[in-house]
# Entry
Amino acid sequence: MTAAISVHKLAECSTCHAWSPDHSMIAFCPNNNEVHIYRLLEENWERIHVLQKHDQIVSGIDWSVASNRIVTVSHDRNSYVWNQEATEWVPTLVILRLNRAALCVQWSPGGNKFAVGSGAKTVCICYYEQENNWWVSKLIRKRHDSSVTSVAWHPNNILLATTSTDGKCRLFSTFIKGVDKKNSSKGSSSSDTKFGEQIIQLDLSFSWAFGVKWSPSGNTLAYVGHNSIIYFVDEVCPNPSAQSVAFRDLPLRDVLFVSERMVIGVGYDCNPMVFAADERGIWSFVRFLGEKKTSSSPKYGSQFSAFGKLYGQSKHGNSNNTGGIVHENCINCILPLKRAGDSKVTRFSTSGLDGKLVIWDLKNEADLSEYL
# Structure
């Protein structure tokens, strides 16, 4: 039985997607300048809105659990916050002050800020200014040496982790006076730092870095390199201890913590990969979520693998023997499907360049239950 419980083909290609707080709707970019909102009606996804404001490809979408607002960013260097008024979604322009494309976006856990990573080597922290009735941005400049590929908020709503194509993962303070509460986090020291102050820089990868995420407790950080290595960092502040897990397959693009001890990685292999930590806290690769079947003639696999790749043959065997692989192209987005307050994730969704939206359930994966 496969862990993929539903597969929906929503477009020819997908850039990113985001779920509404109650998971009844999904915002989806079909690799253009539009955002399509679908609602699930009788097991079928029906398009109910099309958000049209950007001029170029939408590169990031996030739907706030706290405020029910949608934020979008695009290669046109702009960001919009969308508020639902009656049956319409009304956009508000956010001035990012970027001279390069906006690449990623994420709401903070409190819903009062969002972070935008860009090709301009900067991170924009945006918040709502009540007096002037607009969204403003403060920039974290001159910290990155290349494009910011992903951002991830710590559960305390102040610390922000970033990855970049300079190969580094960094941690910043985003404390804004008047927006954040003093000593609002478990570790009160984070609210004592200045805005934009770099807490730590991790030089673990020698290639592009992507897909940074925090564990539910905020004690562990994970991100991936384009060299087919995933990095885990425990106790990031003040004394980090790092582990790296190398694998033989194609690189990952994004990761998701489903519990403190298990991470799902997705990327160019078109098949979610499961990583888990044992009782000692040692991380390792467990298996593919959609297990691959071997070729009908495995004894020739090692001899002819390079020959097969050269002529475009799938390395997973014949094209009619996909072995449970659902996606047909790179998976570029993975999101949890959980209710507020849940400490672990049993369901999550993925989307990719094949235009498919796939929902996965881990409940029936008996060999993984010990890590949940």
Q: What stands out?
A: The first helix runs from residue 301 to 310. The helical segments are 301-310.
